[in-house]
Amino acid sequence: MTTTTGPHPTRRLILQGAASVALIGLGNLPFAAGPARAAANDKYPEEAFKQKSEADAIKALYGKTAEPSDKVKLDAPEIAENGGVVPVSVTTTLDKVTSISFFVAENPFALAASYKIPDGTIPGVANRLKMAKTTNVVAIVEADGKLFSATKEVKVTVGGCGG
Amino acid sequence: MAIRRRDFLKSAGLAAASVALPRLARGADTASIYDIERFGNARILHITDTHAQLNPVYFREPSVNIGIGEMAGRPPHLVGRAFLDRFGIRPDSADAYAFTCFEFEKSAGRFGKLGGFAHLKTLIDRLRGDAGEKHSLLVDGGDLWQGTGLANVMQGRDMVEVANLLGIEAMTGHWEFTYGEQALRDNLERFKGEFLAQNVFLTEEAAFNDALAFDKATGRVFKPSTIRELGGRRVAIIGQAFPYVPIAHPKRFTPDWTFGIREEELQKHVDALRGTDKVDAVILLSHNGMDVDLKLASRVTGIDVILGGHTHDAVPQPIPVKNPSGTTLVTNAGSNGKFLAVLDLALDKGKVSDIHYHLLPVYSELLKPDPAMAELIGRLRAPRVTDWSEKIATPDRLLYRRGNFTGPIDELICAALRTELDAEIALSPGFRWGVTALSGQALTMEDVLAETAITYPETYVQEMTGAEIKDVLEDICDNLFNADPYYQQGGDMVRAGGLSYTCAPEAVIGSRISELKLNDGKALSASHRYKVAGWASVNGQQGAPVWDVVAKYLRSGRMMPERLGSGVTLKGVEGNPGIAGQG
């Protein structure tokens, strides 16, 4: 599948684009467990998905730390309309992107999803997150071997009483 | 009722509601407060949050409206004397009565009720006549269709007829959405103006299922903006609906639609209006609430004026906000038909060179009701008014709702819930609509409905642990006092009956609420289960509508409880000018 969305793909088109990248979080379940460190590794990063804290999950997945960057654009609602399906998306102007990952800081397991971005693919990913409570959503873009992040707090509220 | 000419004359020397020069000297006719100096080549009239109040009302402005963080001590978070001082309003004036809670009961007798659509119609027609043909526009910021028993049973159809006669040309929405998509669309079929909302989109699922949308490419459900020629210039009006409809209200009313502030989409739209459509001015007709609008104005560029609503703040002067490419003026025009905002613009090619803004109180005793509108209101009310006119109680105190933590109306509702549903604790939503009743004024069913008429009025009783109750209070308190306005939903704190607590608004979520106690002074136990009654749940409930519960309580001869159980002690906000007394 190819995407011809131009420099500003709409979210729906990004979604179509997302189907063209490998979703590591689903499928490819490994029969033989092994150390899954680098995202470049084709194996399912089982250890990373088992980590409770965001820092440990990033370390297990990438083995290094990320620096905040305004070149990573994380789109997420300020207040979730439904904590069970929170739409988030990431786009970036960084070059040589090889992976994009989502973390939910205070979910029981912080790593929510990790995508490999094949060479030549528009680095844009959208998916939904299940969030236990109000917390930071962190997006990490791996580009040219380095990690860059964007963070946004998403509030999950009992609702009511507006207005 | 006789016009209290003397009282109004006293206030006539005052030019509270203008950023321009003081109003011209006035003659003997008190209605000359509505003679506005001619200015510019375009006039936009703005009403918002009228909450379907067809007839004039009493409405007491809040005595507690706390701003925290950057908002502390800044409009709109000023009450009472601090508000009067900030805007140079004389304490004994009619404007002090209209804009603040200062000596409300005393002034209510002097200056009477405000608002009413027949009175608004007279004032609007006059101001549009002054501006001349093709030089004026009338817009409504939403919450037009909800707030009375009549609007509720008619699902807002009454207000569409009123809006058409009034001449509303563009509007956006909030409570309008709580009638559900079908009723909303039926009403919009009849509405002669345009319904604008740049920030309502189809959900991905609805888009996939080919749901109805204004623009399938973007997924926008409604037209985002309209361009009108005014004074020979092109003015864009963008609609911004309440961003948190599916969170603040049951999601079942708008299952296919997703909202949000949508800053980025808004910026793109403003840029397109300026770059492609070459408009001369951009106005945002917003139901964000004032704190959200102030933040938005600092980030989104290219908007000349935000005509704001939702938070019901009557702010006499626009607040200028700097952003990377200029300055945006932010207004908020009060509620319940009490005010008419007049935005006079001097438009040049590609820019607004100057503006004058007036937020005019609609003193019903100074305005002759428009006969056609009075006739329409009478006709709309006639089928219901008899049923609802029976006097069911005469309270011995002033009843109002507006305030961050509580109001006597809600104390009454909580007392009714606890008594009729046999619960230890009652929770009642902190709505900002609901009119004021003077002490000794007989209450009718119509009055009870004006405090309670929503499309999800069912009461409930459930068991909650002390810890769960605290969590709910913390969650709602954060919607009010989060330091970042984008995380605020508007509305006030949930009202608690049978329960007192201490609140530290400047703390963070989880640590604002402490010292929870039942009425008997016992501390709330985190693990004990309590019987809690409430209404307006975002989850479906089966109990009797709250208005019937309240009416039953009042008919039984019970009134306000002597010792109120909804005492909230504030901590850490001493000296905040958003506090003029408990409420």
TrEMBL record, chain A:
Pfam families found in the cross-reference section: SoxY (PF13501)
Highest taxon of the lineage: Bacteria
Xref: InterPro entries: SoxY, SoxY_sf, Sulphur_oxidation_SoxY, TAT_signal
Ig-like SoxY domain span: 59-161
NCBIfam families for the chain: SoxY_true_GGCGG
Protein name: Thiosulfate oxidation carrier protein SoxY
Gene (name only): soxY
From TrEMBL, chain B:
Coiled coil: none
A cellular component term, taken from the record's GO annotations: outer membrane-bounded periplasmic space
Presence of the UniProt keyword tRNA-binding in the record: no
Organism: Bradyrhizobium cajani
Gene: soxB
Gene3D superfamilies reported for this sequence: 3.60.21.10, 5'-Nucleotidase, C-terminal domain, 6.10.140.570
Family recorded in the similarity comment: Belongs to the 5'-nucleotidase family.
Calcineurin-like phosphoesterase domain segment(s): 43-313
UniProt key word Lipid metabolism: no
Matching InterPro entries: 5'-Nucleotdase_C, 5'-Nucleotdase_C_sf, 5_nucleotidase/apyrase, Calcineurin-like_PHP, Metallo-depent_PP-like, SoxB_N, TAT_signal, Thiosulf_SoxB
Cited SUPFAM superfamilies: 5'-nucleotidase (syn. UDP-sugar hydrolase), C-terminal domain, Metallo-dependent phosphatases
Entry-linked NCBIfam families: thiosulf_SoxB (TIGR04486)
Pfam families attached to this UniProt entry: 5_nucleotid_C (PF02872), Metallophos (PF00149)
UniProt protein name: Thiosulfohydrolase SoxB
Biological process terms in GO annotation: nucleotide catabolic process
Start and end residues of each 5'-Nucleotidase C-terminal domain: 408-537
PANTHER family documented for this protein: 5'-NUCLEOTIDASE-RELATED, SULFUR OXIDATION PROTEIN SOXB
Single annotated GO MF: hydrolase activity
Keywords: Hydrolase, Nucleotide-binding, Signal
